[in-house]
Specification:
The protein is an alpha+beta fold and about 270 residues long. The protein has six helices and nine strands. It is about 20% helix and about 15% strand.
Length: about 270
């Protein structure tokens, strides 16, 4: 049955190669393909057997404004003729990330401590989580409910204040977390915010999983859902999330505590 599923998007030559592998390697590789295939099903606009990437402006319902017309989201669900290893090497060639200190200065790529990452492709700056139990305001294990104080925007539908689990039980929602990070001028800036779906998906690495992200640049990433700024227009009690276990996207009730990673636009224009 698994062979039938993955054959929907793998070339016949890929399957021949798979069947020729030792049994244990075959099973492991098949599960990797299946994970990527299922992720593909969960993503609108995901290509099947495409040689290219998914253009940013082709992704429906991004929830943002202007997009970078010349930039492609790094989705590589086995472009035709590439093995998983070749696919990962191809993905790595698209990475252009810079580490920043807490003060916002550039540090070496092999630095052991950093607080932010700049994606030089998208020109987005990302918060880097602190280690679990470190006591920092942005501990990787903290969760937050999705909240906006101007709830009138949602016509009386649910937004949930202080329903997460964090260092200060009175400030465990997304809005208060954003405020706290801006008061600290994290990495030298005070315009941090929740990312849109499109922005948060841009740091997913679909050539790997558990977690589906470049862990060398984004340590302590949880294999869990992270909130985005986008409300679900079909259910105003829910907001959109990106799962960094495999990279799928779905809506969830705003009252549910979820992980959060903040972003800022170097040009101050969200994607």
């Amino acid at each position: 049955m698994l062979y039938l599923l993955v054959s929907a998007y793998l070339k016949i030559s890929d399957l021949d190669l798979l069947l020729g592998m030792p049994f244990d390697v075959q099973g492991e590789t098949l599960m990797k393909y299946l994970a990527l295939y299922l992720t593909c099903l969960l993503l609108s606009g995901c290509p099947i057997g495409s040689d290219g990437n998914v253009a940013r402006d082709s992704y429906p319902g991004s929830g943002g404004g202007t997009v970078l017309a010349d930039y492609n989201i790094r989705i590589h669900l086995n472009p035709a003729g590439l093995s998983l290893d070749e696919n990962q090497q191809r993905q790595e060639s698209f990475l252009d990330l810079t580490k920043l200190s807490f003060q916002g200065t550039v540090v070496d790529e092999d630095a052991l401590e950093w607080s932010c990452i700049v994606d030089n492709k998208t020109e987005l700056m990302w918060e880097v989580k602190s280690s679990i139990g470190h006591g920092s305001i942005n501990d990787a294990d903290y969760t937050y409910s999705w909240f906006k104080s101007n709830a009138v925007d949602f016509n009386g539908h649910g937004v949930s204040e202080n329903a997460g689990i964090c260092v200060d039980s009175m400030n465990c929602d997304t809005e208060k977390f954003v405020t706290a990070m801006n008061q600290l001028s994290w990495c030298g800036y005070s315009d941090w915010r929740l990312p849109t779906r499109l922005e948060l998906q841009s740091i997913v690495n679909y050539s790997q999983a558990v977690p589906a992200i470049e862990i060398l640049f984004f340590p302590y990433t949880q294999n869990d859902y992270y909130w985005t700024a986008d409300i679900d227009i079909d259910d105003l009690d829910s907001a959109w999330m990106v799962n960094f276990l495999y990279g799928n996207i779905q809506g969830n009730l705003t009252s549910m505590p979820r992980a959060t990673r903040l972003v800022r636009s170097r040009g101050n224009t969200p994607l």
